Fold each of these.
Amino acid sequence: MTYFIIDDDDVSRRMLQSIVESSGLGEVIGTADNGTEGVAEILRVKPDVVLIDLLMGDQDGMESIAQLRAGGFHGKFIMISQVVDKEMVGQAYQTGIEFFIHKPINKLEIQAVLEKVNGQLKLDRSLLEIRKSLAYLEQGKAQAKPVVKERTARDAAYHMMLDMGITGESGSKDIVAIMEYLVDRREQEMPPLQELYEAIAAKYRQSDKEIAKESKAIEQRIRRTALAALTHLSCLGLTDYSNPKFEHYAPMFFDFQEVRLRMKEIDEEAPTCKGKVSIKKFLQAFYWDLSRKME
């Protein structure tokens, strides 16, 4: 992946470049200390990801992003700033950024965010290639009537996980496998969770002992992934309570008390997530929403 950094602080630019390149996350192909210069250079070199400061001397990060979008740039944006005003952070998210990271710069946080964004980019490109391949195949068919491509369970599931920020989680593959299992069998009601775990585990393991062990691992991976979704959505809700992703997924996938508790933990900068999630509710909501999106 290629990166471009816009920040009027020289130390921040050098720290970010060092984190990106020393972590093997990609290559920084340009930097700028102001928005005007940065916009022109980004439109020329077209990086995959732009790391941009919110407040700068000539123009702020949101103005720079608006100019880049108007210029046809389609890369990802990560905003990094000392600003803590929730209304301003919410406005930043409305411009289309993926994440807002507060300074001072934390190496582990930067690495984790960039890994997630890299995963989203790779998935976007894979889906684009699939669509191109399907479109090419369709060209060879008769043009008598238009052909509408059906949306697969895998396609719909990954788009939902992109919205919830969990495509890079280890349990995302288990969730996709479960959704495909339910769709293939046209299930009207959610089977017992243990039955689902064992059905998926049987694809990878042979003996009863191995299946039982893998079933427990699947449950743990899905629980961690659901907690990651809760955290991501709670962050969106804290910065912008009217965020469409928060409004859609949070009340459907989680109990109100779970969301309130996680938002409180994040607001108080609690180090770990103490909340619990209902895996059954999470998977039921996922299957219902996925079925609706596939129609």
Amino acid sequence: MAGQVALPHRNIHLLIPKRNPVNGYREYTEEDILLLNRIKMLRMLDIPVSDIRKILYEKEALTSVLNTHLLKIKEEENRLRQNYFLCEELIKMDMSVTDLSEEMLDKMISGKEEYIYQLERIKGQDRIQKIFDISKLTCCAR
């Protein structure tokens, strides 16, 4: 293994400072501090430690990991947006949990995306109808 850098074991730390042989204290170099700050920045972006390890030690490109991470964020954003919309609609219905019918629950659970699409379509039609009604009132009021 001469000339090769020993990689940290996959289940341990990303940063392995040297130990002072006299007192056993960890000693951090300027390079360790820089590495720590890079790790902190990636963790602030919620990059998993396993992906940080790939970037630092397995030489996977940062852009590759970030592109994958962006796709995951987009999926999570869509999931949260759907949940938000569904919560809004349930609040508007002013129902208790026991008022939710079996059919309604089945639609929500098995086909949440389709159910939300249908709700959004109905909501959009309601808006169009309201705009149409307001425009009729405006025309007639003149």
